[in-house]
Write the structure tokens for this entry.
Amino acid sequence: MFTRRRVVLFLFLILILQLALRIPFLAEPLERDEGGYGYMGQRILAGEVPYRDAFDHKPPAVYFIYAFIVKCFGNTVAAVRGFTAFYALFTTLAVFGTGYLIFGAGGGLLSALLYALYSGTPMIQGSSANTETFMALPMCLALFCFILGGRKGDKRWMLAAGVLSGLAFMMKQVAALNFLALLFFSFKKMDNSEGKGWMDKYPILPLSIGFLVFPLIFI
């Protein structure tokens, strides 16, 4: 039913729809939290260190994202909104990939369509450049890698899932709950049979090691 060409076409149309739905919000003023992130990004570009020279209570990754936006695209609302709208397209692709692994092509396309339609709605501040928006991409990619790692028995995918979970955690603390869920299921998959290395028998290890990468970098 779903040939590769059709899947690519439908996915392209979904992304166009998502972008079109976000265009009316490109001039929406920054709200309180976004202003705080933007200020922290400006202080980083001025050579200051977060939490020491300027303080905010969120994890640090979002400040560096804002610093990147200001540095590369300018210190404007349109730059923040435009980057966020483009960033959200990659999250939709990650949702499709995860849905494809679980439900097949049809389920992946439906998942991507639902995310494209509802992720940017005003009732959940979907067009905003808040931590939830940025956290969703690495968190979804972590689930994608975790599923692949479980199916292939490949510790590298588990390591990638841990690294991406750690990055999501550095964007918003609640990502730790998703990581705990991955830990639980990796614990259930532990294989104590002979003839395998520690990383292969205990997928919880590469997952946990990967999770520490970004927190240690920021520390």
Q: What stands out?
A: The chain has a mean pLDDT of 90. DSSP finds ten helices and no strands in the chain.
